[in-house]
Amino acid sequence: MNRYTAKVSSPNHGATLGKFIRLAFPLLSDLSLQEAFRNRDVKVNGLRVQRNAVVYSDDAIEIFTKHAMRDIPRVYEDQNIVIINKPAGISAQSDNPDEYTVQKWAEETYLPAINAQICHRLDNQTSGLMIISLNEDSHESILAMFRSRQIIKEYTCLCVGTPNPEDGMQTAYLTKDADKGKVYIDKSPGKKSLKIITEYHILQKGEISRLRVILHTGRTHQIRAHLSYLGAPVLGDDVYGSRRANKEYNAKKLCLCATNLAFFGEHDLPYLNEVSFSIQPPF
């Protein structure tokens, strides 16, 4: 039997236990959590409780389960970088001290002297390839490569319908609403908007279409918001998408995955030049 523990800090005072556990233990499977609650193997301050219980600052959380915590798969590793396949449901970084993130995983997985740092982000519900640097020099090199477009990121997604137009490179303007945690897309620039460029190609057309997407700018929720604006929301997206379609197709997770990373040009990690890494999406 595995025992997992956490302590509630002040930002999560008053949260439900279910919400707190998803923050603190994103690598525990839904099955293992359902089983733990069903078997009354979840405790707060030593007392068995249900998922809807409210937790408060300094509460001690315990979960007992026969299931082990999932690890984050590593696709490639050398002395400078590691490329992971991030599962959906775990954030890259967070200001919430109780949230377990990819950055915290990297710090736990590698010695403190290695100074492992994420080099870019994926949304919490987006899965796929992420680069983690293992020293300060490689971190700066990867950031410079992103700025100069020497690393190309490609995604695969399932969309409800097809975007209009059906193929090509589209430019729009994105405005972020930090209070609502959403972004808005418009065809014309606004006072606080940022230009976005999204390239996409239909791999399979239908009521649910499969697309290959190439980001030429990397803005918050860019793919999800832009494809929704173009009439083809990502399947499984309850924020920018169609809840009716998500329910109809039983899409409980966001069908968006970073499936390809390719390195180009002259840079400080020349052994990576013309090298690409690919994975299959989980949908």
Provide a descriptive summary of the structure in words.
- The chain is an alpha+beta fold.
- It folds into three domains: 2-65, RNA-binding S4 domain (Structural Genomics Hypothetical 15.5 Kd Protein In mrcA-pckA Intergenic Region, Chain A); 74-149, 2-Layer Sandwich (Alpha-Beta Plaits); 155-258, 2-Layer Sandwich (Pseudouridine synthase).
- Helices cover 18% and strands 32% of the residues.
- The chain is built from six helices and 15 strands.
- The strands form two sheets. Strands 5, 6, 7, 8, 9, 10, 11, 12, 13, 14 and 15 form an eleven-stranded mixed beta sheet that branches. Strands 1-4-2-3 form a four-stranded antiparallel beta sheet, covered by helices on one side.
- Strand 2 and strand 3 form a beta hairpin.
- It is globular, with a radius of gyration of 20 Å.
- It starts with a strand and ends in a 5-residue tail after the last strand.
- The model has no long low-confidence stretch (mean pLDDT 96).
